[in-house]
């Protein structure tokens, strides 16, 4: 009887900088559908154009300085089967009136999140019927920061995308809001 070796990964010796470089948020009410896979898919990546957006959708684009936005996903067995808890946390390095206004306007919405990791991988979490919830925490300390968290519970892990949505330069943020983020 022979033994079979199976190589998994292939990351040995490759850089893994971690953290998210860019985050794109879309109100789930602007997502028409996401073509979800049936069963296992190659590389856990959705097909190109798997996400269909309504015309005139606003893409809220946030770019982060290095090490200011993280992603965590945990798997748990429940009475309803396996569930995946996804959380994106971003530390915004400067409190501004524009940011406070954006948060107040969008606080109760549910979100589809698309992100680009610093390693170049692109991922997505949230769906039209189960978007990520937005919560905040602000501190007026020596760092003067706002912590933005998007979190959700799903019956599948987050998926990868072949590319980030192609969007026009105008975004949901004003110039004053984006000045609080790294470029």
List the helices and strands and how they pair.
Elements: E1 20-27, E2 31-34, E3 51-53, E4 60-63, E5 69-78, E6 81-92, H1 97-106, E7 110-117, E8 122-125, E9 132-139, E10 145-154, E11 159-161, H2 175-178
Antiparallel strand pairs: 1-4, 1-7, 2-3, 5-6, 6-10, 7-8, 7-9, 8-11, 9-10
β-strand number: 11
User: Which residues sit in consecutive blocks of at least 5 with pLDDT less than 50?
Assistant: 169-183
Q: Largest beta sheet, briefly?
A: 9 strands, antiparallel
The radius of gyration is 18 Å
How far apart lie the N and C ends? 57 Å
Shape category: globular
Order of helices and strands: EEEEEEHEEEEEH
How many domains comprise the coordinates? 1
Percent range for helical residues? under 10%
Whole-number average pLDDT? 81
Q: Helices and strands: which structural class?
A: mainly beta
Strand content range: 35-45%
Tally of separate helices: 2
Give your account of this protein's structure.
With 183 residues, the chain is mainly beta. It contains two helices and eleven strands; from the N terminus they run ββββββαβββββα. Strands 1, 4, 5, 6, 7, 8, 9, 10 and 11 form a nine-stranded antiparallel beta sheet that branches. Strands 2-3 form a two-stranded antiparallel sheet. The protein starts with 19 loop residues before the first strand and ends in a 5-residue tail after the last helix. The C terminus is likely disordered.
């Amino acid at each position: 009887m022979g033994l079979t070796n199976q190589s998994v990964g292939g990351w040995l010796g490759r850089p893994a900088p971690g953290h998210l470089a860019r985050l794109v948020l879309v109100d789930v009410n602007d997502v028409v559908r996401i073509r979800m896979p049936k069963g296992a898919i190659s590389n856990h990546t959705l097909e190109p154009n798997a996400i269909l957006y309504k015309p005139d959708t606003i893409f809220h684009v946030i770019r982060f300085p290095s090490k200011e936005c993280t992603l965590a996903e945990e798997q748990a067995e429940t009475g309803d089967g396996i569930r995946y808890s996804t959380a994106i946390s971003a530390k915004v390095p400067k409190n501004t009136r524009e940011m406070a206004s954006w948060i107040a306007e969008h606080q109760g919405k549910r979100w589809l999140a698309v992100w680009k990791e610093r390693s170049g991988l692109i991922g997505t979490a949230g769906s039209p019927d189960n978007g990520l919830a937005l919560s905040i925490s602000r501190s007026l300390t020596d760092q003067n920061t706002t912590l933005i968290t998007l979190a959700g519970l799903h019956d599948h892990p987050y998926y990868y995308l072949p590319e980030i949505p192609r969007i026009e330069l105008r975004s949901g943020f004003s110039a004053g809001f984006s000045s609080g983020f790294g470029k």
